[in-house]
Amino acid sequence: FTGGVLYRIDPDGTVSEWKKGLGIPNTIAWSPDHRTFYFGDSTANAIYSYVYDELTGVISGERAFIAGFLQGHPDGSAIDAQGCLWNARYGGGCLIRVAPDGHVDRIVSVPTLNPTSCTFGGPDLRTLYITSARSADRLSGSVFAMEVAVGGLPDGRFQLLST
Known about the structure:
Layout: E1 4-9, E2 15-22, E3 25-30, E4 36-41, E5 46-52, E6 59-67, E7 73-79, E8 85-90, E9 94-98, E10 104-109, E11 115-121, E12 127-132, E13 143-147
Antiparallel strand pairs: 1-2, 3-4, 4-5, 5-6, 7-8, 8-9, 9-10, 11-12, 12-13
């Protein structure tokens, strides 16, 4: 299947197709300095990184950030304060923490086969919450929490320009 599309919404409300021909578009994140944009395609088992210009919104320079990792497929992600991408690996029973240079820094097993996403929370953003899909395994559909040494970043905000 290659019918997936990544859409772009500009502050003025304009919607455009940014990338076509995707399998299952997944995971959107920005580096702490907003200069790198991450986007994944679960079917391709890849997460790509792009150069992002925060002033103009131009995205360019696609490169494979992590591709072909053998445990599951990329699903939702979150960025920590060191710029590492935490990625839920659907079908792989784990999360991976990928350093900004693209190497897998850590693999964390979760007690279900299909983790779907993760986000940082708590007063110091040092609790990583992990969601999972419902399936036949006993703990599927659960939300898990783990304390991490490096906290996350506050969620970004998107604001449409008033007309």
